[in-house]
Amino acid sequence: MTAPHPVVPDSEDCLIEARHALLSFGATPALQGASVRVGAGEILAVMGPSGSGKSTLLHCLAGILTPDSGEIHYSGRRVDTLREQERSALRRDHFGFVFQFGQLVPELTAEENVALPLLLGGARRGDALREARGWFGQLGLGGLEQRRSGELSGGQAQRVALARGLVARPQVLFADEPTGSLDSLTGEQVMELLVAAARQQGTTVVLVTHEARVAAYADREVIVRDGTVRSMSTHRVGS
User: Fold this and answer.
1) Confidence bin at 62 (pLDDT 50/70/90)
2) What are phi and psi of 218, to 5 degrees?
3) Closest Cα partner for 71 from 14, 5, 27?
4) Who's near 38: CB < 8 A, 6+ residues apart?
5) Residue 67: which of 24, 35, 16 has the closest Cα?
């Protein structure tokens, strides 16, 4: 049995945090005072029904959206008050992303898609491609380096997206319904690879899902309802 995990990480272990975040889209409230802490190296599942605000919370934690009020902190730094250029640099240098449909660039090969974060960070093309190729064997994608997204199965494309999210060794990986477009078996394979790679690199993961079988891979889960973090597990999921 896995040891219990604290509901809220100690302040010294907290890497990323939302404090009383409120955000509306026009007259529609999305977040209504949501607060959550994520510990360094933790895999946190953010659960809730469709429209509950869980993806909006992820986007605020990642600096993609800024709340109307409340605070977002990352590694002791206030994120929501940064200029857009500064938040873009933060996302580029510290965060990785995996989304439901992969969102690969169709004009690029699989290895070029994986290398993209490194290239955007200023790495030389040859160095970036060499680093990218190292992920293909690790994720069971050997021989697919030159294929484009239209030539990959859904599971293969999502594993390429996972490699792209992790290739720059981000401190935080934000995964928004990463198995939502996959069948159960392929989704489990992707989650096993995601968790293993994140553990190996010490990457913190914020995982949005509405599926209990996906949340079971996390250390801890929080439940978002009506734009508020309503409940949190007191033990590691599955312990």
Assistant:
1) very high
2) -85, 165
3) 14
4) 9, 14, 15, 16, 17, 44, 61, 172, 204, 206
5) 24
Distance, in Å, from the CA atom of 182 to the CA atom of 190, rounded to the nearest integer, reads 9
Strand ranges in 58-217 using DSSP code E only, listed in sequence order: 69-74, 77-78, 95-99, 172-176, 204-208
Identify whether the C-beta of residue 177 lies closer than 8 Å to the C-beta of residue 99: yes
Quick check: 98 pLDDT over 50? yes
- What band does 1 get if pLDDT is binned at 50, 70 and 90? very low
Q: At what angle do helices 110-120 and 154-166 cross, to 10 degrees?
A: 20
Find the mean pLDDT for residues 162-166.
Answer: 93
Phi, psi of 77 (to 5 degrees): -115, 135
The backbone region for 43, taken as left when phi is positive above 0, alpha when psi lies in -120 to 50, beta otherwise, is beta
**Structural Rg of the chain based on CA atoms:** 17
Q: Where are the domains of the chain?
A: 11-232
Mean pLDDT (the chain) is 89
8 Å CB contact between 185 and 16: no
Is 137 exposed, middle or buried, given 0-12, 13-18 or 19+ CB atoms closer than 10 A?
A: exposed
3-state secondary structure of 101: coil
CATH of domain 11-232: 3.40.50.300
